[in-house]
């Protein structure tokens, strides 16, 4: 009796130690898992899947060499660490410079230059993890907990705090200043065959096995922190920090408001993609899917801000983000337009009927097509019930008068007063484009929208099916067709994605080479990633064969494996040299 009683506390401690860990398992649709296992081999795909559930253990910084240098930024980071501790929370790490000589100090080098040729403007800042944390509770009390959404948890693993909208559930009697363990609720199989989180926001946790997702959250604890407000406040206010993280499974330095305009935090493969494009000063470059502007600004810096970069996105707010980033980095050669990349090519017969400037037809618009701020309104009838009693005169064309409804004018005024509408427009001007003439760009970067199955950390992948992956590939093929029309003979197309899906990568390259005989794969510099996948795969019960690359072609592309020693996101880059086009 005494023996079993003495063993009970140790067994409970062991159970807690096993529970309060971070050991996620990425879930896929069975058909997708089999497809990737066939492409990579089952063991390699298992390693990739495990790596995707964890963040990279370092941050990659691109230096704006038009404003500073890698050496200067390194010294500034050293001073900032000494003064402000931007890398606070990372233990046993020191800053030093690697010049090919091993550093003679304890711990690892925190900041060092990228060792790859052609990437001299890149710095690596080392983080640490995964760490085994101790989730202590008060005597005779269970650990107070907060459950966050998957998206929130993925951000926390990259260094963010827990914000109010991301909190799903919280222990009862949590007050401001309490220490709480943070875990994540991941989608689970639903009865209808889909996936669901299954937690109503505001759920109370009692520290019992009957709590929501109690068993499912085992091994999904991402850290602990101090609550910035009480439980009632968390579920009452719409925004703000809910939990300030004090201990994390992964510790990565924060760069918020650090050296603004001099550095840009960017994944290494994205930096490589801009380099592979090899833009030259004075050229005309097209970035077809440019938001948020990281690669666009990288290209501008490589061109020494000389020439023209046309950056496209179909979202008003994202175009504004591109312009904001360009201004922050003090770049002037970037022109951003609101345009769906699938409509990038201007039809020749339409171009003849309108005035063309620089091979591009554009019209400047505010978010509202008829903003009342741009016209002078003259009231011709003061009656409140008058429906067509306003004369609007365009300031630029005073002779052009038109009658509009006072109701429409009041609607415009309400929109201006009430701010963003259902589309969450952030306001401000963007330029709309009607498209561009064929053969009007020297180089085109198509960083295509994709399934994003290479981004890290990713805690769930079950939303993708073979059908949805195929739809992504079709969409990318249509975009690539536009890119081919827009680039001039002798030019270059760089195609990239942040997914591990061969159907969106190697299969797209196969389509491009088979469809456009004047395209050929070009050699890439710098060459940091590994080779692509050669061969093919039978799909849909062998009814369809997805063709990939030959052995020779696979050596000309770059594939970044998240499970490799590079520790990057999953990424793919292909470079096409454009020959003489057929008429």
Automatic annotation (TrEMBL):
<feature type="binding site">
    <location>
        <position position="447"/>
    </location>
    <ligand>
        <name>S-adenosyl-L-methionine</name>
    </ligand>
</feature>
<protein>
    <recommendedName>
        <fullName>SAM-dependent MTase RsmB/NOP-type domain-containing protein</fullName>
    </recommendedName>
</protein>
<keyword id="KW-0949">S-adenosyl-L-methionine</keyword>
<feature type="domain" description="SAM-dependent MTase RsmB/NOP-type">
    <location>
        <begin position="193"/>
        <end position="579"/>
    </location>
</feature>
<feature type="binding site">
    <location>
        <begin position="289"/>
        <end position="295"/>
    </location>
    <ligand>
        <name>S-adenosyl-L-methionine</name>
    </ligand>
</feature>
<keyword id="KW-0694">RNA-binding</keyword>
<dbReference type="GO" id="GO:0008173">
    <property type="term" value="F:RNA methyltransferase activity"/>
</dbReference>
<dbReference type="InterPro" id="IPR015947">
    <property type="entry name" value="PUA-like_sf"/>
</dbReference>
<dbReference type="Pfam" id="PF01189">
    <property type="entry name" value="Methyltr_RsmB-F"/>
</dbReference>
<dbReference type="GO" id="GO:0003723">
    <property type="term" value="F:RNA binding"/>
</dbReference>
<dbReference type="InterPro" id="IPR036974">
    <property type="entry name" value="PUA_sf"/>
</dbReference>
<dbReference type="GO" id="GO:0001510">
    <property type="term" value="P:RNA methylation"/>
</dbReference>
<dbReference type="InterPro" id="IPR023267">
    <property type="entry name" value="RCMT"/>
</dbReference>
<feature type="region of interest" description="Disordered">
    <location>
        <begin position="379"/>
        <end position="399"/>
    </location>
</feature>
<feature type="binding site">
    <location>
        <position position="313"/>
    </location>
    <ligand>
        <name>S-adenosyl-L-methionine</name>
    </ligand>
</feature>
<dbReference type="InterPro" id="IPR001678">
    <property type="entry name" value="MeTrfase_RsmB-F_NOP2_dom"/>
</dbReference>
<feature type="active site" description="Nucleophile">
    <location>
        <position position="498"/>
    </location>
</feature>
<keyword id="KW-0808">Transferase</keyword>
<dbReference type="InterPro" id="IPR018314">
    <property type="entry name" value="RsmB/NOL1/NOP2-like_CS"/>
</dbReference>
<keyword id="KW-0489">Methyltransferase</keyword>
<dbReference type="InterPro" id="IPR049560">
    <property type="entry name" value="MeTrfase_RsmB-F_NOP2_cat"/>
</dbReference>
<dbReference type="InterPro" id="IPR029063">
    <property type="entry name" value="SAM-dependent_MTases_sf"/>
</dbReference>
<feature type="binding site">
    <location>
        <position position="340"/>
    </location>
    <ligand>
        <name>S-adenosyl-L-methionine</name>
    </ligand>
</feature>
<comment type="similarity">
    <text>Belongs to the class I-like SAM-binding methyltransferase superfamily. RsmB/NOP family.</text>
</comment>
């Amino acid at each position: 009796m005494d023996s079993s009683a003495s063993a009970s506390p140790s067994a409970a401690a062991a159970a807690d130690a096993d529970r309060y860990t971070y050991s996620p398992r990425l879930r896929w649709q069975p058909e997708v898992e089999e497809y990737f296992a066939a492409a990579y081999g089952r063991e390699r795909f298992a390693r990739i899947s495990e790596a995707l559930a964890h963040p990279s253990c370092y941050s990659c910084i691109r230096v704006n060499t038009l404003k500073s240098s890698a050496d200067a930024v390194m010294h500034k980071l050293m001073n900032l660490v000494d003064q402000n501790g931007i890398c606070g929370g990372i233990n046993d790490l020191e800053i030093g410079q690697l010049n090919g000589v091993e550093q003679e100090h304890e711990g690892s080098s925190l900041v060092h230059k990228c060792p790859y040729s052609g990437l001299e403007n890149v710095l690596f800042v080392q983080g640490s993890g995964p760490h085994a944390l101790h989730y202590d509770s008060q005597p005779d009390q269970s650990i107070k907990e907060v459950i966050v959404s998957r998206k929130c948890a993925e951000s926390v693993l990259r260094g963010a705090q827990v914000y109010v909208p991301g909190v799903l559930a919280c222990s009862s009697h949590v007050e401001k200043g309490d220490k709480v363990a943070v875990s994540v609720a991941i989608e689970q199989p639903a009865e209808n065959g889909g996936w669901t989180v299954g937690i109503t926001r505001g759920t109370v946790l009692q520290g019992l096995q009957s709590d929501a997702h109690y068993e499912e959250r085992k091994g999904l604890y991402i850290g602990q922190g101090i609550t910035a407000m009480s439980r009632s406040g968390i579920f009452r206010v719409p925004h703000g920090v809910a939990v300030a993280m004090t201990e994390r499974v992964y510790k990565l330095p924060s760069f918020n408001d650090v050296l603004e305009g001099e550095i840009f935090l960017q994944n290494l493969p994205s930096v490589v993609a801009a380099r592979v494009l090899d833009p030259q000063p004075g050229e005309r470059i097209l970035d077809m899917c440019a938001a948020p502007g990281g690669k666009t600004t990288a290209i501008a810096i490589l061109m020494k801000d000389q020439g023209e970069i046309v950056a496209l996105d179909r979202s008003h707010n994202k175009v504004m983000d591109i312009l904001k980033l360009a201004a922050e980095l003090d770049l002037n050669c970037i022109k951003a337009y609101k345009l769906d990349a699938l409509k990038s090519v201007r039809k020749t017969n339409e171009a003849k009927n309108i005035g063309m400037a620089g091979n591009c037809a554009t019209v400047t618009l505010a978010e509202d097509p008829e903003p009342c701020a741009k016209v002078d309104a003259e009231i011709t009838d003061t009656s409140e019930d008058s429906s067509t009693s306003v004369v609007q005169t365009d300031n630029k064309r005073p002779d052009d008068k038109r009658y509009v409804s006072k109701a429409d004018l009041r609607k415009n005024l309400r929109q201006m007063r009430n701010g963003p509408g259902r589309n969450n427009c952030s306001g401000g001007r963007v330029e709309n484009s009607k498209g561009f003439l064929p053969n009007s760009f020297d180089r085109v970067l198509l960083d295509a929208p994709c399934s994003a199955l290479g981004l890290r950390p990713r805690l769930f992948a079950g939303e993708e099916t073979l059908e949805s992956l195929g739809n992504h590939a079709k969409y990318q093929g249509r975009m690539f067709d536009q890119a081919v029309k827009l680039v001039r003979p002798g030019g270059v197309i760089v195609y990239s994605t942040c997914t591990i899906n061969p159907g969106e990568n190697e299969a797209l390259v196969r389509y491009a080479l088979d469809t456009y005989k004047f395209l050929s794969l070009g050699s890439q510099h710098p060459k940091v990633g590994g080779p692509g996948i050669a061969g093919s795969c039978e799909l849909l019960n062998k009814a369809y064969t997805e063709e990939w690359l030959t052995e020779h072609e696979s050596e000309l592309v770059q594939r970044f494996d998240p499970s490799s020693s590079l520790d990057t996101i999953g990424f793919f880059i292909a470079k096409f040299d454009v020959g003489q086009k057929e008429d």
